[in-house]
Every structure is written in C-alpha cells, then in structure tokens.
Design goal:
By secondary structure, this protein is α+β, with helices and mostly antiparallel strands. The chain is built from seven helices and 14 strands. It is globular, with a radius of gyration of 18 Å. The N and C termini lie far apart (37 Å).
Length: 280
C-alpha cells in the first residue's frame, strides 16, 4: 500500500464511522438476519460508503463485504481482494457501549497485507501492513485519535513482552464460549478484559494485552483487518488447532458459510502458544 492509498482507506473508514454515529445518536430499528444476528440501517449505510469508495479507488480489486454477502452477492475474489465489515460489533452498537468498529482489509495470496480498524464512538483508529515508500516496503502498524473528521496523535504501535506476573487476556463481551473460558482458566492470567468487536485484535497489536483466544464462530471479515494490524505490530494470529498462521480464502462458487473461520488465537508473543494445548 502506498501512503496515498492508506490515507484514502483511513479516510473511507472515518466517513463510514461518521455515518454510523449519526444513526447511533438517534432511535433506529433492529432486524435479524437468517442466522439470528442483529443488523441495523447503520450496517447498510456504512457499507454503501465503503463499497463506493473502493470501486472508485480500486476498481480492479473485488470486494467481499458482509451485508452484500448476506444479500447474496459474493464475487469471485481470486488471490487479491478486500474484506469489509462495515459495522463489527452490532450487539455492542445496540448496547450503546461504543465497542464497535469499521473494518477494511486487503488480502493477497491468503494473507492480510493491510488493514484499517476505526472505532468511531471511541475516537480510535488503527492501521497497519505493508507500506511502500522511497522505493522499498516496510511492515508497520499505527494508532491515531479521531478528531474533527481527521486523524491526530499518530504513533507507531507494537506488541509487548508479556509481564512476568501474568498475562492480560482479552475475550469477547457478547460471544464468550465455554471452550474459550476453559482455555483461559489454564493460563497464568493477571487480568481478563471482555471487550467487543475487532478492538481485541487492535489492543493486542498496541500492547494493551497479550492474548486473545477465540474458540467461537467468526467470519473472515470480522478479523482480517485486525489480523493485518496484529501481524504488522509483530504479533501473530494462528489456528487454534494447529498453531499455523491463519489463511484467508474465498473458494470458487463460495457461499457465506465458506467464509466462516476456524477457531483462532491472537497473540503478541508466540511463546505463549506453548502453554496452550491444541483446541478441539
């Protein structure tokens, strides 16, 4: 990604977030998808902004977006495509706790090479991946503050060395499974924080926590942008069962269920994975 492209994607996430906050501040209706998960007009409005922007700037790159897939539109993606979750954490949106995000990721050959995650209600934005400049490419991750429609206080982020006295573990606020709780109970944990959406991945990347196990269902668009940021910050997102790096694929003639993720572990330190027995 060039600096110009990154600026565009970050601005696109901000614009989607601004539209979400307009709806967030007013009464709105909630509907249920086929799988029972909630959806609001904020999801659709944010996705419309993102899809229009990506079509303008990157017309040759397919986009796999949550609400479009829900409506039956899943393009043939190939090796390079965008993954979009216009409003990750709809349950947190409904609870009005601010822990929801806008996620945009670029996938190349199964790897998330760039991602931006905006948390508009918290005024936080994270991004990271392969950044081109001066004839070379570097892998970096950043955090910024959303202020007056722009981004200020930009600073590089990186994962941290786990504290000696016990690790900080993140878990889903609304989707904490028994399997995840059982895994956490086997670790030396000083702190467990339950938080919504892809913020968990961003907090691992920023060194606010050490470990995020997810032994419960997710979709590719839920985690791809955060995964890119974790990797760019020096961490890893791996399959819980094998410890191998997570790989993204959209099979030919795919359906929504083909984009469902296996269980995974996100960490700032791979040595932590030695303490985790393979998950069933």
């Amino acid at each position: 990604m060039t600096e110009d492209q990154i600026f565009f994607l970050n601005r696109l996430a901000l614009r989607a977030g601004e539209e979400i906050l307009k709806i967030y501040a007013e009464p709105f209706e909630v509907e249920n998808k086929v799988d029972g998960s909630p959806v609001t007009k904020a999801d659709a409005a944010a996705e419309e902004i993102i899809l229009a922007g990506l079509a303008e700037k990157f017309p040759d790159i397919p986009v796999v977006a949550e609400e479009a897939v829900e409506a039956g539109t899943l393009p043939s993606a190939g090796a390079r495509y965008f993954l979009v979750d216009p409003l990750d954490g709809t349950k947190e949106f409904l609870k009005k706790n601010g822990e929801f995000t806008v996620n945009i990721a670029l996938i190349e050959n199964g790897r998330p090479v760039f991602g931006v995650v905006s948390a508009p209600a918290l005024d936080e934005i994270y991004w990271g991946g392969q950044i081109e400049g001066n004839g070379s490419a570097e892998t970096k991750a950043f955090k910024g503050t959303i202020r007056d429609g722009g981004i200020t206080d930009i600073a590089p982020i990186s994962v941290r060395t786990p504290p000696v006295g016990g690790i900080s573990v993140l878990a889903s606020r609304s989707h904490l499974s028994e399997e995840t709780s059982a895994l956490i109970s086997r670790l030396s944990v000083a702190e467990q924080v339950n938080v919504g959406s892809s913020l968990k991945l961003c907090w691992v990347a920023a060194g606010r926590a050490d470990f995020y196990p997810r032994l419960a269902p997710t979709m590719q668009w839920d985690i791809a942008a955060g995964d890119a940021i974790v990797r760019a910050a020096g961490g890893a997102v791996v399959l819980a069962e094998t410890g191998e790096d997570f790989v993204y694929r959209v099979p030919e003639n795919a359906r929504k269920d083909d984009l469902r993720n296996p269980y995974f572990l996100a960490t700032g330190c791979r040595t932590l994975l030695r303490d985790v027995a393979p998950a069933a």
